[in-house]
Here is the input.
Amino acid sequence: MHKMIVAGAATLFTALAGIGSASAFERHFTIQTANGVLTGTAQMHCSNGKCERQLKIKTADGETLLRTSSCVKDAPRVWTCTVKGSTPQAAGSGKSFTLTVN
Here is the structure.
């Protein structure tokens, strides 16, 4: 799960670094873990200095986790992001952070 969160953060950072106009993408993934297979979808939509991302993960035991984040451009190369999760297990839920794109 930690690798997935890191991958999601990397995806978010990459999208923010390249944003200049409206864009969107969707990625599907499968990760083999010691506890079984995780499958999921990541979607991102960016427009007018704001990006919305949704990460949906289905665990090996059939539980579905949903994590959303929203980032707003504060200044050139500076973004403030808020993360929300649909379950208490969603790591980082309710957190805010600032990204600076170098």
Notes: The longest helix spans residues 2-18.
